[in-house]
Amino acid sequence: MSSSTPNNKRIFAPGGTNDSQQAQQYTKGSLEASQLDPNPLTQFDVWFQHANAEKVHQPETVTLSTAELPSGRVSARMVYLKELDDKGWVVYSNWGTSRKASDVKSNPHASLTFWWHELERQVRVEGKVERMTSEESQVYYDTRIRGSRMGAWASQQSSILSSREELEKQVEDVEKRFDGQDKIPVPDFWGGIRVVPEMVEFWQGRPSRLHDRFRYTRDDNSESGWKVDRLSP
Questions:
Q1: pLDDT tens digits for 132-149?
Q2: Residues 151, 156, 92, 202: is their CA dihedral positive or negative?
Q3: How would you classify the pairing of strands 89-94 and 109-116?
Q4: What is the DSSP letter of 41?
Q5: What DSSP letter does each residue of 153-202 carry, written as one string?
Q6: Each residue of 212-227: pLDDT tens digit?
Q7: Catalytic residues, which ones?
Q8: Hey, where are the domains in the chain?
Q9: Superfamily classification of domain 33-144+188-230
Q10: Which of 2, 5, 49, 132 could form a disulfide with 136 if both were Cys (CB 3.0 to 4.6 A apart)?
Q11: What is the SS3 assignment for 105?
């Protein structure tokens, strides 16, 4: 049998940075149960602060995945984590016209996946979605630059545009609407959603794909409210 790459494969076992078909080895850390906080939100905060201290590039970047029912079709996109509170993880977006808005209306569950390459760490969150109030969303909305606040009003996210000029006209109309106003109300179709966790997994890369994985799941019988299990890689 030939050892050459089959010619019907456009990509075959990409080797990343080592110029071979061997996958990169993860060697930067390990994870033990004794290192974990009983609460996964606290543990995430610890890891996130470490990621910031180690200058991980935009550690707030996260993949938000949703699924439409009854078809079960899954969609995913990169967003920014903007808040972590005692209830869960918060991201902001358009919840009127976007694909994720449609998904969440039919299926109020979502997942988040963080990947911090510099630390060879991954965090996965699965849980129910709840919409933030307009008052809560306004607090974050007010921190955005004016152009981003205008953009939230102007963009009918995921709807079809005939041209770039159509989008720019929408922005121009919004600018006229709020001309001279510094305090701009958050759109009723825009704001935050909180992913309230039912499962949180912390993953530390290890050599030979023998990674360290710990999964938190809800447990009302536990003092912390969570059960922690080590998972096979």
A1: 999 999 999 999 999 999
A2: negative
A3: unpaired
A4: H
A5: HH--TTS--S-HHHHHHHHHHHHHHTTT-SS-PPPTTEEEEEEEEEEEEE
A6: 999 999 999 888 899 9
A7: 209
A8: 33-144+188-230
A9: Electron Transport, Fmn-binding Protein; Chain A (2.30.110.10)
A10: 132
A11: helix
